[in-house]
Design a protein that fits this description.
With about 110 residues, the protein is mainly alpha-helical. It is built from 5 helices and no strands. It has helices at about 15-20, 25-50, 55-60, 65-70, 80-90.
Length: about 110
C-alpha cells in the first residue's frame, strides 16, 4: 500500500448539474429547496442585524436555544407560520410573505423582516 499515490478527483460541477437537470423532478426540487434556503438565510441575517444570539432569541420567544438552532438549520420541514411570526417579533421585525406570479423575474422574495 505504500506505493499507491494519492490522486485527487477533480469534479466538474457544471457537467454534474447538466446531468442532474435531466433527472425527472430534479429541477423542481432544486428550485423548491432554493426558496427554503433563501428563507433560512433571511432568518440568520435578521438575527445578525438585531445583534442577538440564539439564546437571546429563545428567551424572547419563550423557547430553548436548541429550538432556535433547529429553526435556523436546513431541515426537511419549514416552520409553522406562527413560529415565524414569533421569531420576527423577537427580532423586532415584521414578517412579510409575498405571492409572486410564476414567470415574473422580480427581486421580491418571502422575507423574515
Amino acid at each position: 500500500m505504500a506505493d499507491v499515490t494519492y490522486e485527487p478527483i477533480i469534479r466538474d460541477r457544471q457537467r454534474e448539474r447538466v446531468r442532474a437537470d435531466r433527472l425527472p423532478g430534479y429541477t423542481e426540487a432544486r428550485l423548491e429547496a432554493a426558496i427554503e434556503f433563501r428563507l433560512l438565510r433571511q432568518l440568520l441575517e435578521a438575527r445578525k442585524q438585531a445583534g442577538l444570539t440564539q439564546d437571546e432569541v429563545a428567551q424572547r420567544m419563550g423557547t430553548t436555544r436548541s429550538a432556535i438552532s433547529r429553526l435556523e438549520a436546513a431541515r426537511k420541514h419549514l416552520p409553522a407560520l406562527t413560529t415565524l411570526r414569533r421569531y420576527a417579533d423577537a427580532l423586532d421585525c415584521d414578517l412579510e410573505i409575498n405571492l409572486v406570479p410564476r414567470g415574473l423575474k422580480t427581486t421580491t422574495t418571502p422575507t423574515a423582516g
